[in-house]
Amino acid sequence: MKKPWNKIKKFIEHYILYKNQTLMSKFCVFSSILVILPVLSVGIITYKYSSFELEEEFTQSSQKIIEQVELHVEYYLQDFEITSLKIINSPEMGNLLRLETSSEYDRTLSDPALKVLKNSEYSRNDISNITVFLDNGIIIDSLRERNYYPAINIKDEYWYSSVPGNGMVMLVSRTLKLKDKELPVISLVRRLYNPHTLKPVGMLIIDINFKRIEEISKMVTLGKDGYFFILDSEGHYVYHPKYSKLGNKVEFMQLTNLESGKSGSVLIDNNRKELVSYSLSPKLGWSFFTAAPYQDLRVGIQQIRTAITWTIFISLIFAYLVGFYSISKSIVRPIHRLRSFMKEVEIGHLNGRVKVESNDEIGQLTAGFNKSVERLSNLLEEVYVSKLKEAEMTLNKTETELKMLQSQINPHFLYNSLETIRGMALEEGRENIANISSSLGKLLRYNLRNSLPTVSLREEIKFCEMYLKIQMIRFEDRFEYFFDIPDDVMDFDVVKFSLQPIVENCFMHSIGENSKKIKITINAQLLSKSSFNIRITDTGVGIKEEVLKELKEKLRNNSTSLGGQHIGIMNVHQRIRYLFGSEYGITINSTRGLETEVNIHLPIVDGKEVKE
Which of 242, 435, 534, 598 lies at 20 to 30 Å from 151 by C-alpha? Predict the structure, then answer.
């Protein structure tokens, strides 16, 4: 519970109270907030309310316009339904619809029917064409040779299969192709039935031009860039100021999923973001829309926003010029001067003092700081003299201890002593003792003779074998050893004195606990172009499970706390990681009662590079 509270506290101090910021920054931020917040709050509330009211007003106005247009268009198209019924119920058309096959066709039937179509077309100037399309292949077209669009292609148009089978009309948007132009029309489509059998025998298509609908649409005023359009029940454009869109699917999915019989408004995100009001006509199955750029509705809102912005800007300038000048002169500038002097004190300049200009809290703070610096200067002088004497005494003591250590053991004394033992052993005929003494002397020289951290694997094996020979004298035939080292690996550099501590562990945890003869094997192999591996195995009793687990953990963490008989392995592991990095080092595997395997992973490097 305490930790979350501490995090919240730190957040408030850092981001709200500006704990680590300068005084001038705090004054600027807090003063700005005190000016901006009240003005901004009023501005935002006014802005939101005005925006909402303006959109509501536009939506209501658009709905009234759409309802009027919708009513006009419904009455207008109802007249064409009556015209279509007159055509279907005429005796001439009845005779044509009774034909069963095209073989019964006679011009005496088609000519009167064509005359009926012509009369209906001439009766109104907004009918562009009337077509009777029968399933038996008979086609009567009032345009005749002036129609450059094959009537047989009507079957392939998107609306053909959607025409109601109950005799109701359907309104679609199409284009008539004449000799010299294309004429967009609204087509009233109705199925035709045989008067005797009542079976569907064809289709009646009345093509209505846009003259009257354009007149109605032009009465719709929606500002400079607003416009009016109509969609059918499938979402295709029936009317649009751009004739190229007629018959195409509407681009916005928001306008195709509207509830039937409902009206409202929706914001579509096209290239200029438009507010669209709509109303659905149950009689026609059409949707009527008005669209206006959303930006045009927000002209008044932008003026309010501009006024708010200028008010905030002028208020801030006034606050900065009047308020910050006095604050800077009376508070910030004395504190800055005091801070500069504190930095001088930090680097050891204790001779200066800050001028006290007032008797307020800042003046009292400055005077107190001057006294503290003066007292600190006196104390430092006393401490300096005391430390100087203490350092002189410590130096004398260290020099004395160093001389004592240097006089304790001289390596040449050890070499000479081992040679004396070897000579005495040879005089007494004790070759074993002489060999041990000689090998020990060589091992001592190998370990102390140079300061390089690495040697060649050949040299390391040479002295490791010397150690094994000493142990052979000690343990006689209780163990045997083998080297399996390829010649191309012999000249690689290894950490100096790295094999002997590991081989020594073979004796410590194997021979002492086991009476059988053990086998020690040392081999090496390339792992890649940049690294190689040395493996030391013995067939002793292995390492106890709990000891092995602890040893692996220490190797993984590069710990130095593991002592006892494995201290040599830890020493080699640490030296390898120190010289070459954490990806190299020693790994151990052991099976109790069978064997122990130690792997040394090393890079292929030059010994000179390691020294550098």
Answer: 242
Contacts of residue 125, defined as CB under 8 A and 6 or more positions apart, other chains included, come to 211
Four-CA torsion 138, 142, 148, 151, nearest 10 degrees: -30
C-alpha span between 469 and 475 (Å, rounded): 10
3-state secondary structure 271-322: CCCEEEEEEEECCCCEEEEEEEEHHHHCHHHHHHHHHHHHHHHHHHHHHHHH
Compute how many other C-beta atoms are within 10 angstroms of the C-beta atom of residue 200: 14
d(CA 335, CA 216): 77
SS3 200: strand
The residues, any chain, with a CB within 8 Å of residue 450's CB and separated by 6 or more, are none
In angstroms, the CA 290 to CA 278 distance is 7
3 state SS of 43: helix
Residue 602 is predicted with a pLDDT of: 93
CA 442/CA 432 separation, integer angstroms: 15
Q: Rounded CA gap, 327 and 148, in Å?
A: 87
Max CA distance (Å), the chain: 154
CA distances, 588 to each of 145, 547, 556, 562 (Å): 100, 11, 11, 15
Q: Does residue 602 contact residue 533 with C-beta atoms inside 8 Å?
A: yes
DSSP 236: B
**pLDDT tens readout for residues 140-196:** 888 777 777 777 777 878 778 888 887 788 888 777 887 777 778 888 888 888 888
In the three-class reduction of DSSP (H, G, I as helix; E, B as strand; rest coil), residue 362 is classed as helix
Residue for token pair 């509830």: 259
* Block residue for tokens 């000799």: 179
Tokens of 224: 């400079």
Residue that wins the pLDDT comparison between 434 and 536: 536
Q: Which residues of 84-105 are buried (b: 16+ CB within 10 A; e: fewer)?
A: beebbebebbebbbebeeeeee
Beta-bridged to residue 283, according to DSSP, are: none
User: What are the φ/ψ torsions at residue 319 (nearest 5 degrees)?
Assistant: -65, -40
pLDDT per position as a tens digit, 244-289 = 777 778 887 777 777 655 677 777 776 777 778 888 877 777 788 8
Contact 157, 207 (CB under 8 A): no
Q: Tell me the C-alpha distance between 43 and 38, whole Å.
A: 9
Structural tokens at position 100: 């069963």
Q: For residue 340, which amino acid is it?
A: S
pLDDT digits (tens, 9 = 90+) for 437-465: 666 666 666 665 556 788 889 988 988 88
Please tell me the distance from the alpha carbon of residue 212 to that of residue 226, in angstroms, as a whole number.
20
Asked whether residue 53 carries a pLDDT value surpassing 70, the answer given is yes
Are 278 and 208 in contact, with CB atoms under 8 Å apart?
A: no
CB 463 within 8 A of CB 442: yes
For the record, the structure tokens of 259 come out as: 């509830």
What the block records as the tokens of 38 is 């009240």
CA distances from 285 to 21, 170, 248, 281 (A): 67, 9, 17, 5
- Would you call 368 helix, strand, or coil by DSSP? helix
Residue owning tokens 């070897």 = 422
